[in-house]
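Researcher: Next entry in the queue.
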Amino acid sequence: MIDRRHFLRSAAATAGLALVQPAFGKALTGKLTHKERVDRALRGQDLDRPPFTFYHHYKRPTPQLEAQDHLDFHRAYATDIVKVMNDFDYPKSTTGKWWQLDPVDSPYPDQLKALEIVRDALNGDAYFIDTLYGPYMTAMILYQAQPQFAGRNDSDEVRDEAIAALHDFQKSNPDGWHRAMEAITQSTVNHIQHAKKIGASGTLVSVFNAESKFGSVADYAQYSRPYDKRVIEALADTKLTILHLHFLERPYIDQFTDFPAPILQHSVKTSGIPISEIRAKFSQTILGGVDEIDFRQLTVDQMRQQWTEARQQAGAKYIAAPGCSVPDASTPDELQRFPRSLGVIV
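Model: Structure for this entry, 346 residues:
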């Protein structure tokens, strides 16, 4: 079987991808560039086709390898936005207590290097954005790295145990919780300022805990919302920041109506919430609509139907994408189906 990285490099080295012009909206003179297409979607203007992006994790050990994989993926599939995954670790506390954290200049210096490499190689061809967890998920990762969880299988049972234990910590040690969240939030904002100086057009900020298994709506409002909002506010001046609601239940939606994120994304598949409900609450550009869970089994026609229905519900301010990252094990043939559904490659 062909190796995916070998395929990406081979595809990127070819003379170019075959392009077609699908019927979409009003006829436009000439082919839009990646940036033009994105800009027109953000303004709700006519398009040759919706802009699109998709992505998965690489988990490479160096920023150079991580950046190259992203560049190969963009060149192979002609994505309109390059979302640079961040698989580097937040630095742990050195005191033996996970929550005793102090702000740092950037918790992800290797990610900043990867962003620089991507910027230089793209040479203005497309917008690129960073990726960050919301402060709650960063705290959760640090909490779950404690000895009582180390070495245990990453099962639903263990994750649920950790979520419940962390919720108990919030209530029993609120000072420790807020110290950790303050340090994580300030460190995240510091990182954002560096990423913006590098030239990133925004950041996908992944909020994990807008779901009852993490606590009530009131718990989210007390323990997480102020920190999530500060991160998004630090990105309010960017073009392509995405508020990614990784888990979402309906009672939590109103917690985000005043977040100044230019783009919203949630998983229709895992939440059961159609894009029409999100559009009723938010005026921003919506990204998503394609099933990321069963992505590998979807046909080109099924993907086309999904993003077409999503755009009908979202309106013109829409970017086609899965609801989250697609499976890392996706093959080149499976990955090609999404751009083929948009008429990007034959």
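Model: The chain has 13 helices and seven strands.
Researcher: Noted, moving on.
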